[in-house]
Structures are given as structure tokens and as C-alpha cells.
Amino acid sequence: MLRCVLFDLDDVLVDYDRSIRVSHLAQAIGSTAQAVHAAIYESGIEDAADRGALTPQAYLDALGAQLQRRISEENWTAARHAATRVRPDVLALARRVARSIPIALLTNNGVLMARQLPLIVPSLFPLFAGRAFATAEFGASKPDPGVYIACVERLGVPPETTLFVDDNEANVQGALAAGLHAHHYRDLTALLRELDRFHLP
């Protein structure tokens, strides 16, 4: 019997467009999209933040140094918000599941993302309030099995009673290695079939 369904964020609960994030931030700080893309996705700064190696301020400072611009928390948050659109059908399903068992969220992201999630995707709250986590909070990133184990320990549920849903096959395999049930998300129909196996929602 399941005691928790743990959702990934990007490309499961929401659509996320990197190009919108990049162009929005570039415009806000007076830089180019190419430079912002390189700073976020090619410098290693984002990956370090996802693993918890950088505090929110250290992360913003590192991006700023890379771009030779000041990056405020407000500008960063606004860019991520602009690039993120909730999937109403998946959110509706999450609400139905939550009537039966607890749900939670685990995203490969830094502490800044965890802190700003209610502003970035307000429609996910209060549904996920107190149960939305970034991997940085656990000192590693998916698909490291330790991330999933630390997350379910925080949630107070055993791995074998948790279903993890992610669009990335490597992340699914990491969850399975940690002892969770896991579903590789491709579309809502397949997820509904998976939940039906557990008599949900």
C-alpha cells in the first residue's frame, strides 16, 4: 500500500522553457541570451547549486560574476516564473491523489528554488506547502539514490511505500535503486494506469 506519491516538477507538474528563462533574465540584467545560457547551463554553477554546494547568495554571486552583472533574487525568480507553466491536468490529478494519501515534490534544484517555489508556481500551493523539496536540501542531486532516501525520511514514509514520478529515466532508476516504486512519466494516461495499480486516486 502506498503512503506517498512524490512528483518531479519540470516536465511533470509543469512545462519549463529554458529559452524563456534565459531571454527574460538577459533582458532584466542587460546581457545577451547566449551569455546567460552559458552561465546557467554550461559553467557548472547550476549543477553545483542543485547538489547543495552553493548557498542561494553564493549561487547568485557566482552567476553574477560569470556574467559581470548583479543578479538579484527578484530578477532570478521572475525569469524562472516566466518560464514555468503548470499543467492543469496533472495538477488536478495530484489534487485527487492528495485526498487519499499525502503527496510531495522533489526537484533537481538549489535551495533558492525551494525557497521561491510559491512565487514561481503559485498554483501548486498550498497543495505542496511544507512538502516541496529541492535536491540541494539533501546535499546531492537526482539520480543519486541517497537523495530519495533522505527525502522520504524527511517525509516520514518508508521508501517501499512511496511512488516517485519523473520524466527522466535515469532519475527513475535512481529511485528504484533507493527502494521506491517509480514511474517514468510520458503522458497522463500512462500515469493514471500506474496509479490504478495502487488503487489511486
Descriptive overview:
The chain is of the alpha/beta class and 201 residues long. The chain folds into 2 domains: 125 residues, 3-Layer(aba) Sandwich (Rossmann fold), CATH 3.40.50; 65 residues, DNA polymerase, domain 1 (Orthogonal Bundle). It is 50% helix and 13% strand. It contains 10 helices and 7 strands. The strands form 2 sheets. A 5-stranded parallel beta sheet has the order 5-4-1-6-7. Strands 2-3 form a two-stranded antiparallel ribbon. Helix 1 crosses helix 2. The longest helix has 12 residues. The radius of gyration is 17 Å and the shape is globular.
Please describe the structure with a list of short key phrases separated by commas or semicolons.
201 residues; alpha/beta; Rossmann fold; DNA polymerase, domain 1; 2 domains; five-stranded parallel β-sheet; two-stranded antiparallel sheet
Q: Mind sketching the topology for me?
A:
Elements: E1 4-7, E2 14-16, H1 18-29, H2 33-41, H3 45-50, H4 56-67, H5 73-82, E3 84-86, H6 88-98, E4 103-107, H7 111-120, E5 132-134, H8 145-155, E6 162-166, H9 169-177, E7 181-184, H10 188-197
Parallel strand pairs: 1-4, 1-6, 4-5, 6-7
Antiparallel strand pairs: 2-3
